[in-house]
Amino acid sequence: MQTQILERMESDVRTYSRSFPVVFTEAKGSRLTAEDGKQYIDFLAGAGTLNYGHNHPKLKQALIDYLASDGIVHGLDMWTKAKRDYLETLEEVILKPRGLEYKVHLPGPTGTNAVEAAIRLARVATGRHNIVSFTNGFHGVTMGALATTGNRKFREATGGIPTQGSAFMPFDGYLGEGIDTLDYFEKLLGDNSSGLDRPAAVIIETVQGEGGINPAGIDWLKRLERICRDQGILLIVDDIQAGCGRTGKFFSFEHAGITPDIVTNSKSLSGFGLPFAHVLMRPELDKWKPGQYNGTFRGFSLAFTTAAAAMRQFWSDDTLERDVQRKGRVVEDRFQKLAAWLTEKGIPASERGRGLMRGLDVGSGGHADKITAEAFENGLVIETSGHDGHVVKCLCPLTISDEDLLEGLDILEASIKKVFG
Amino acid sequence: MQTQILERMESDVRTYSRSFPVVFTEAKGSRLTAEDGKQYIDFLAGAGTLNYGHNHPKLKQALIDYLASDGIVHGLDMWTKAKRDYLETLEEVILKPRGLEYKVHLPGPTGTNAVEAAIRLARVATGRHNIVSFTNGFHGVTMGALATTGNRKFREATGGIPTQGSAFMPFDGYLGEGIDTLDYFEKLLGDNSSGLDRPAAVIIETVQGEGGINPAGIDWLKRLERICRDQGILLIVDDIQAGCGRTGKFFSFEHAGITPDIVTNSKSLSGFGLPFAHVLMRPELDKWKPGQYNGTFRGFSLAFTTAAAAMRQFWSDDTLERDVQRKGRVVEDRFQKLAAWLTEKGIPASERGRGLMRGLDVGSGGHADKITAEAFENGLVIETSGHDGHVVKCLCPLTISDEDLLEGLDILEASIKKVFG
Amino acid sequence: MQTQILERMESDVRTYSRSFPVVFTEAKGSRLTAEDGKQYIDFLAGAGTLNYGHNHPKLKQALIDYLASDGIVHGLDMWTKAKRDYLETLEEVILKPRGLEYKVHLPGPTGTNAVEAAIRLARVATGRHNIVSFTNGFHGVTMGALATTGNRKFREATGGIPTQGSAFMPFDGYLGEGIDTLDYFEKLLGDNSSGLDRPAAVIIETVQGEGGINPAGIDWLKRLERICRDQGILLIVDDIQAGCGRTGKFFSFEHAGITPDIVTNSKSLSGFGLPFAHVLMRPELDKWKPGQYNGTFRGFSLAFTTAAAAMRQFWSDDTLERDVQRKGRVVEDRFQKLAAWLTEKGIPASERGRGLMRGLDVGSGGHADKITAEAFENGLVIETSGHDGHVVKCLCPLTISDEDLLEGLDILEASIKKVFG
Amino acid sequence: MQTQILERMESDVRTYSRSFPVVFTEAKGSRLTAEDGKQYIDFLAGAGTLNYGHNHPKLKQALIDYLASDGIVHGLDMWTKAKRDYLETLEEVILKPRGLEYKVHLPGPTGTNAVEAAIRLARVATGRHNIVSFTNGFHGVTMGALATTGNRKFREATGGIPTQGSAFMPFDGYLGEGIDTLDYFEKLLGDNSSGLDRPAAVIIETVQGEGGINPAGIDWLKRLERICRDQGILLIVDDIQAGCGRTGKFFSFEHAGITPDIVTNSKSLSGFGLPFAHVLMRPELDKWKPGQYNGTFRGFSLAFTTAAAAMRQFWSDDTLERDVQRKGRVVEDRFQKLAAWLTEKGIPASERGRGLMRGLDVGSGGHADKITAEAFENGLVIETSGHDGHVVKCLCPLTISDEDLLEGLDILEASIKKVFG
């Protein structure tokens, strides 16, 4: 595999190609193929972008058909048939059955853009600037979104400019057993000298992805929503990684029965790995004036097309939902066993997650890196997350076959046992 | 055309669908088709994103072939064959023949993301925070980029948070005839009490797009480069709208014979309207550490594929370059005549631009809106730019046929004469 | 008492004149006299600025002598005999006996100026921007200091600009019994995704004044110092209100046996109510270059003169220290009894403080206001603090006579009993 | 003269003691005496703080009388007789005769505090954040004021935090002969894409002090006022250095017949070198709510006392005004001759100023330093200003005797001729 030009020309900022130093060529379902023909089972799936696997045949066909018909590809924010189909499908297949009524903002086709738009809307709608996010939260790296992202790696790469307009609260469980971190939040809110500027909004991932696969408790989420309602604070659920079925429901917040004021989706939203994002907002929050937020690629029709096809394909009934929950339990079970085995070996480990968003916490980035490196040698693409990279995470396609799922888990188990046995 | 759901569900932030209230379905070359079958000549071309027209058959075929082969679509920042082909083609077809040596950063696939990455790199590389941009400059709306964007519509929609880390200088010609605005910049730089923090970088469009199709003079650009070199300031050319051949050269700065330290490209970079962006940087500026800037869609292989195909198709020789220059003169000539006609009618007007990035300044947004509305009625999609929307701009595909170009210009002329005759 | 011009000409920002709507004329020791001849015992004492009482005869004489000799009054930051005497006295009487070695920065003569200088020094010295302050902390209202001040009244009066460069941690006891809030701080410090930017410094009042007379525990302060040392974070003690003997030691941090890297003093530093402030810093932290921080009144010789006289008068032996501790116990005892009485009456109340910085927490600002208003009617000037103004605070002169102290306490007791009896 | 402790204990930030490395002891009128008995004529006068000279006998007597009567010294913002006298005198002696109607805000007793309060009020009153200041402007160094101060020495000593909420415009004359810099300002204001956020206020020194003794033209100031009125921008005149008679009128803006919305005074406001400052504002701008801006020393009665005495002494008739203008012409004339002499010697020099705020521009800080060092050797304390320290400035007491004025000028002339002869 010829990699010189890649090493020479691409910025040192590149990162995944350091973990997986091969040249990938093809992909199908839950399998990646490298240039030398070697196949890998994909438990990374575009960091949650390929919930329906690589090159799903139905979505691919919809895409090729659209292209073949000379459908408009790039439509700025003009009206197109593709956009209309997308909105209709979103309403019929996703929103209405869930009793949700949202308007849709189509900003630039990346998650960070959706977060910037969501945050800005919250500020414009409330007249307040403070956005509360949570320890280990990740919401993007453009300057507005970065203010709500906890990771120092990004925060220290601004060239010294401090971010502004946000405050961090401890996520559920952050202060250990028996402490409800919302007590702290509520105390600060009720204290006129706490230093916490009255928030415009709270932004939260119901299951933190980059932060280490940390699921917020159902009751905790309900209480968070209640606090927000009581205090006139908008609740933004950043469902970019946890949404689109990853946790076993289309929206991750459905598990808690809460209704965010604003929702961001991206990653698996197009269903096919195409850049795409939207912001959903309660209609009365739509304080935007024409053109106040723009971007060149806010009308990417190929993504509208596959997104609509994906919704129809996977969300018209509850087959996928049930399947995700079933497979999630398979992963959960295996991870629990691996955690137990590791703990016995003197490496305290634990399992956590929701649906098919699952983490195996092995205590340190060093341990986790050894495991994922060994797994890659053995044909499994799997990555880590968490503040120290200490959590091996499973983000396999939701549509993975049972065979591939089990084979992947077997590789992982063998790798762990080889490394720590 | 059914538009109710579009009006009901899409945020009020939508803007182009107000100018062109039809539902577009198909597009080919320089023509758009609406749902009712009516065809429009496209002088907007995705605001400069479709330099090679809609659905160019060669690019479309490359895309369909790639999809048919189950090429990897979404690759994070892993190594892929598509990325390698892209980098090789970029080097062979674009950089080497121009004597340029750059490393490539692939941030999120939007212009604003590229600008955020470019700015941040400049800060990290210099240890300084100040980014100098110019009056009427537009560089994106995420918070970091917004600091360098002059437009109040966006700046006032932050919910009251002031942007930080930038300063605005007068663009070439801003202070009128006979005043070289770089005198002012140089005076501020040399004055320890000027209030201008020593800049990390200057970011500039050599021809301002959203700002009103304002070309910076060749000598002025050369002097700007010299000032930057002398003062240790990095020169960033934001070539998102003016690049990819729009001005008659692949990079707009080639006209001035200058070599920016950092270049941003997006819009027409994929050649097919797909979301895509890169940052080019002098190799010694690559101060990024692994993973310091990330984004989900930084390895969008479909865009790599069409971008490489487009470079090979259009930039292997100088045919397109010469063609753009020739057509540019056609537009220039017609616009000059229209300006003269308008001026005679008591509406002082003027023409400006470079290559096929041309503007007809009609003095007020009111005038311009009447013209573009009438033109749309007559089958021409054309938009305005400038701080008051007072410049009718021609951003037709570079590949437009002479017939379509002339028909478009005829429609524009007839519209102007109908409105002001 | 003619007050019309005061009501008409002074900005509505005025506040104490609303609590005490009389015109004061003279003052001596712990007594204020209004224009109508009525005397008041002063338990406010310039909000901690008059630790040695009003117009102390020895200090007054030193001041008059200095004036009579035509000593230089205003010396910018030139060398003056008055400044030299001040520095010598500070070193001999205060620093050396306490084993402290500090250099002295003389910024503008206000507390907020000292805090701005201290914070800026910490940033310059560490190359980091984040200043950690605490819930209910108060450090001034100029924009730099305001970032570390918790009070919303001030924070919301910036015209919408968010402060930058700081983060708030819970003060000792903030999360209730049994939770050491430094656990949280330490967890955030050790977590690379916590959102807490690596701090340049921590700024703390060992006993919060405006925040409600909240003393940090001795062990908590020791642990805070240890964390700072371990992490390379500078420890700034803002001793503007709690310093100069208020807690029974010259520096409030002496109780904990800790040694801050940087100390701010103001308020009672001049000993006579004259505007004055200094910043003390470990010599190796003096990274200032000549003239990098300035201000017109940084060489106010009258304040040097009375400050030196006050140090010699009150700090050459431990008489005052012991006296403050004795009187502190008198107040503590009475406040505890009043708290018990109130609690019995159904108004849960409590006492807290250190030395002669003592608070009676009566649960609500409404209760506290009634008490202080009644007290004022009966000849006692006393104010409230805390986020809801719910703490009646005793900041009487340290030099108050036992008679005045007891009379003041009697008035307070009678007022409480009248209001709630 | 013993200076070791001064060198050892004071922070390296000290600056004037480097230019004048002697220990001053006494001062009277326009003369300073050092510890060795040597006398110096004072052309610095506390950088404009001692307009009425050192230890003026009438003001001194008023001060001593006040102290002797046990007048209240420190009154927070309570009502005191001293404050009432101050307000009455300000209204009767200063405001009414000039047809001005202002309310008075008494923030902390330093110029930077007054500027912070003025800026914040402008933001609160307009709901906008942008404060426009000018090249070479100096308004203080606390973070809010620093945003409007042009000097890099201070701006770069923030530890890397960029200031926010301000923009710099070119001061009168900054772009050279024949260019009215307000054309630029007006163009930016009228241009929706200029990058200039709609200003809350303009803050300006009518004669820049630290910036190099730059007087704004009378017509330019009138036009600035007109632009502000037309655009709903508040006009703040920072009269801290140029006010209190320095230019020959009590307020420097009287020369232009303009009426600022907000005025800041400090420096010579107390008349005796005591820390003091106030903000004057049009009554309808007083949007402050009680207590929204505070500070310990906002009721410094000694300063009220000397300030009122100084107004009565010097501003009850026009004697001082006329005297300043006469002496100003003396300095002007001598400086012009010196400029001509220097220019002949090959050192292009020029004179400028208004009243007794006068500068001799000698082209470089190197030249100026040589002159002032030589002058100091010969018994004249005089300093430089300007972005390169290239302007020798005369800020002698307004009350200087003709003898001292001429002797000072003679020393300066001899020094210049010695250095460059």
Describe the structure.
Four copies of one chain form a homotetramer. The first copy, chain A, has a seven-stranded mixed beta sheet with strand order 4-12-11-10-7-5-6, with helices on both faces. By secondary structure, chain A is of the alpha/beta class. Chain A contains 14 helices and 17 strands. The model of chain A has no long low-confidence stretch (mean pLDDT 97). In chain A, strand 8 and strand 9 (214-215) form a beta hairpin. Chains A and B meet through helix 1, helix 2, strand 1, helix 4 and helix 5 of A and helix 1, helix 2, strand 1, helix 4 and helix 5 of B.
Count of alpha/pi helices of chain A? 14
Low-confidence stretches of chain A: none
Radius of gyration of chain A: 21 Å
Spatial strand sequence of the major β-sheet of chain A: 4-12-11-10-7-5-6
Q: Biggest β-sheet of chain A, characterized?
A: 7 strands, mixed
Helix content of chain A: 25-40%
**Shape estimate of chain A:** globular
Oligomer: homotetramer
Most extensive interface between two protein chains, with residue counts = A-B, 115 and 114 residues
Percentage of residues in strands of chain A: 15-25%
Beta strand count of chain A:
17
- Separation, N- and C-terminal Cα atoms of chain A: 33 Å
Structural class of chain A: alpha/beta
Mean pLDDT of chain A: 97
